[in-house]
C-alpha cells in the first residue's frame, strides 16, 4: 500500500501490512471541535515507535564517539 496525504505537511507512507483506512482518534481539533481522523498506518506507527524515536533523539544529543575516547 502506498499512501500520500497532507495534514500539516506532506506525508508519504509505504506499508505491506496496513490497508488504506482512515480511523477516528479520540482527540478533537481545538479550533473546529471536530474529531481528528488519521490513516491507520500512522496510528499504529505512533503507538509502537515511541521508544525507538526517543532513543534515537537522545543518541543524537550525545555522540557515541565521545563515550569511547579516553583523555
Question: Your description of this structure?
Answer:
This protein has one domain (2-62). The chain contains 3 helices and 4 strands; from the N terminus they run E-E-E-E-H-H-H. The chain has helices spanning 40-48, 50-61, 64-68, and strands at residues 2-6, 10-14, 22-28, 35-39. It has a two-stranded antiparallel sheet. Strand 3 and strand 4 form a beta hairpin. The protein is extended and about 55 Å long. The chain starts with a strand and ends with a helix.
Looking at this protein, list some descriptive labels.
single chain, 71 residues, alpha+beta, two-stranded antiparallel ribbon, 37% helix
How would you summarize this macromolecular structure in one to three sentences?
The protein is an alpha+beta fold and 71 residues long. It has one domain (2-62). Helix content is 37%, strand content 31%.
Shape by Cα distribution: extended
- What sequence of helices (H) and strands (E) makes up the elements? EEEEHHH
Strand order of the largest sheet: 1-2
Task: Let me know the number of strands.
Answer: 4
Overall pLDDT, averaged? Answer: 82
Number of domains: 1
- Count of helix runs: 3
Strand content: 25-35%
Biggest sheet record: 2 strands, antiparallel
* Assembly state of the chains shown: single chain
Helical content, roughly? 25-40%
Which parts are unreliable, with pLDDT below 50 for 5 consecutive residues or more?
A: none
Structural class: alpha+beta
